[in-house]
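As a next step, the fold was encoded as tokens, giving this record:
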Amino acid sequence: MFHPFQLLAGFIFGTIGWGVWRYGKALDRWKPKVIGLALMAYPYFIFNVILLWVIGIALLVLFAFQHDA
């Protein structure tokens, strides 16, 4: 049974993940590509709504602070 916030989180983080993956692909950087793929894929495997949002926000923070030298 799907919760509305679960569907919303999957849509939001999947869309942002697609953008992050495209950003990494355009710059040919592996870290944004991996983070983008993780953002797109993890909602399919996490069923707890709170954990879904926490992991999504953590991946976005990880993307914000990732640096390639």
In short: The mean pLDDT is 93. Residues 11-65 form one domain. The chain has three helices and no strands.
